[in-house]
Amino acid sequence: MMRRIRAALVALLASALLAGCVAIPTGGAVSRFALRGGDDAPTFNFLARPPAEGDDQDEILAGFIQAGIDTQDRYAVARQYLTTDLAARWNPNSSVTVTDGTRSASTRVDGARISLTVRASARVDASGAYSTTSDTAVLPFSFVKQKGEWRISAAPDGTVLSPYNFSAVFAAFPLYFLDPTGAFLVPDLRWYPAGASAQDRVVRGLLAGPATWLGSGAVVSAFPRGTQLGSDGVDIRDGVATVDLSAQVLEESAAARRRMTAQLQTTLQSITTLSAVRLAVRGVAIEVPADSSMPTDDPQVGTEVIAFGQGGLGTVSGQSLAPLPPFTAKTAELPAGPATLDRSRSTLALRSSQGVWRIPAAGQAELVDRRSALIAPAIDPEGFVWTAQTSGVGTVAAIDPRGGVVRPIGSASTPSGGVLVSMRMSRDGTRIAFGVITADGPVLQLGAIQRDSSLVPTGLGPFLTIPVTGGTLVDVAWIDPQSVAYLVRDASGTTVRSQQVGGQSASLGRPVDAAQIVGGNAGVDGLRILTSEGGLLQQTGAGGWQTTGTGSLSWLVTQQ
């Protein structure tokens, strides 16, 4: 009880402090006010200040914007700044505009209208999907007097938050869907207000289906179309979540119900630790037969670091390389180059000066792509070797392991004049990440892989495009199913950054002269970096990078 009281007091104090820094000055035609910014977000919920008697239009507008931090009771405080009619119609959940941390300017149009100019850094749509941006929005507001007090009579739907306040109010929740084989759970990151209502909001998002860029056939859901959250919602007690659903689920098979349960349990784990999930319809429990087989949400690879160095291909062991049978012998006559090893260690894809080789553990090496200017290849879980040229994402091809048929995977979404520098496949085989240098700067492009009924890749869905900051793009690697890392170089050296797929980026430090990056297990701790001098680096607990192996490596091998 005392902990809750202290949290409430801290929230009230923070609210009072915040309220003091958002007032809009009234002098002049153009005025400015601060939306609080910062790097560290608090762990408590803000409580907004309701309108005060005698507030003028500027104060009403500032108070309304500030009230976007208080999501309680459907943004009840923010609605107090609106007329009765608008309060009933205003939809705060339609979008969130996250500012870039600079001051927003208000311009008085006339005696009853003010426009607010906001420089945005990101937006969250009604589904909770996050996208970065750098545009400027002009938001119109109109005012009337209601019972002698100024109130907003017209306003755009949605809220406006500083980066600091967005981090305080919203949290990232991965919704989990299934790959077409049912072997993997694939995260689709969404952003919702944290708090008691999050569990219902998260499940509603899951039932509504994947984001547009993923919903092109790359992932599926076990829930039948039209399934809704029931009136009892999500009830979590003693580590068990009971999820009330509409009657459509009653027609599904036992296997489908097990997959539904897996999606729900993995999704709700981001809110609290669960031991079980139970399905119900109108409060009546549904039987879900037990099964030991469960899809995985974090495919693992070998724990060794694999590289080319003096003596050929092998696993890094101190200052030397230990042989990696049978691939050490099979690559002995081939030039070292960037390579990818599949998770079962049955196939190695290697780029040499001649092109891309497919090297099976059992069988002969085969040159499967002889094109020039090829980048490092990838391998998907079905054994397809993916190749591409630096001339762009439109040059991507998937080579069928059954007969070597080359299947073009070109995409019209490639930026004009884009140069492709890196291509990495997610371990679940549903998404592929490209590092592209465009005329407007470097970007990450993530595409969802479309497959036919035989799991043959046929194309890519619409790209999720994420601007890259900090310099020239060097390389890209998957950290885990939810995030990628990328290397950038500027005049002072190299920087590593992490990027959530559908979320935010963060710096992972500045390793000296990094040339290549690969992922492993355990998230960021599994990343390894190759320096231009052949050294191997891993991140320290303090966020730096330290040498962890031989200084005579030429290429690291990506383990798929």
Describe the structure in your own words.
This protein is mainly beta. Strands 1, 2, 3, 4, 5, 6, 7 and 8 form an 8-stranded mixed beta sheet that branches. Helix 6 packs across helix 7 (254-268). It starts with a helix and ends with a strand. The relative contact order is 0.08. Mean pLDDT is 89; it is low at 1-43.
Identify the notable features of this structure and list them briefly.
mainly beta; eight-stranded mixed β-sheet; Nuclear Transport Factor 2, Chain: A; disordered N terminus; 3 domains; single chain; 560 residues; 40% strand; Methylamine Dehydrogenase, Chain H
Blueprint (SSEs and pairs):
Elements: H1 2-19, E1 30-33, H2 57-66, H3 72-79, H4 84-89, E2 95-99, E3 104-110, E4 113-125, E5 130-132, E6 136-146, E7 149-154, E8 159-161, H5 163-169, E9 170-178, E10 185-193, H6 198-208, E11 229-237, E12 240-245, H7 254-268, E13 276-281, E14 284-285, E15 306-309, E16 312-317, E17 320-323, H8 327-330, E18 339-341, E19 347-352, E20 355-360, E21 366-369, E22 378-379, E23 385-387, E24 397-399, E25 406-408, E26 419-425, E27 431-438, E28 441-451, E29 457-460, E30 464-467, E31 472-480, E32 483-490, E33 493-500, E34 505-507, E35 514-518, E36 528-531, E37 536-539, E38 545-547, E39 553-559
Parallel strand pairs: 2-8, 12-13, 18-39
Antiparallel strand pairs: 1-3, 2-4, 3-4, 4-5, 4-6, 6-7, 9-10, 11-12, 13-14, 15-16, 15-39, 16-17, 18-19, 19-20, 20-21, 22-23, 23-24, 24-25, 26-27, 27-28, 28-29, 28-30, 31-32, 32-33, 33-34, 35-36, 36-37, 37-38
